[in-house]
């Protein structure tokens, strides 16, 4: 068994034949949906950008909730500490 055959997992001719058949089927499906290779690339890019933005949006919302709660909790804590300090 040659190194090329070992690398490809089969004989080079069979691999080329399999790739041609799969490429034809994928091209047929992409054409049916009106997709181009750039549409796929932009879709993947948009997915990762949305995922990135969603992560920071979640952190922003989390910190917003903390600040919103702190606007009530911290003054109440200070008032309770002052009230208990007199005793």
The tally of strands reads 0
The share of residues in helices is over 70%
How many domain modules? 2
Query: Overall mean pLDDT score?
Result: 88
Structural class by helix and strand composition: mainly alpha
Any idea what the radius of gyration is? 30 Å
Count every helix, treating DSSP H or I runs of 4 or more residues as helices: 3
The percentage of residues in β strands lies in under 5%
Shape: elongated
Q: Roughly how many Å apart are the termini? A: 90 Å
For the largest beta-sheet, the strand count, sense and barrel status come to:
none
Order of helices and strands: HHH
Contiguous low-pLDDT stretches (5 residues minimum) are none
Overview of this structure, please?
- By secondary structure, the chain is mainly alpha-helical.
- It folds into 2 domains: 1-35; 36-87.
- It contains 3 helices and no strands.
- The protein is elongated.
- The mean pLDDT is 88.
């Amino acid at each position: 068994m040659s190194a090329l055959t070992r690398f490809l997992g089969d004989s080079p001719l069979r691999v080329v034949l399999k790739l041609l058949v799969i490429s034809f089927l994928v091209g047929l499906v992409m054409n049916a949906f009106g997709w181009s290779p750039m549409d796929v690339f932009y879709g993947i890019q948009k997915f990762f950008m949305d995922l990135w933005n969603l992560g920071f949006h979640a952190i922003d919302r989390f910190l917003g909730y903390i600040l919103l709660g702190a606007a009530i909790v911290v003054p109440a804590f200070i008032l309770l500490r002052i009230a208990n300090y007199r005793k």
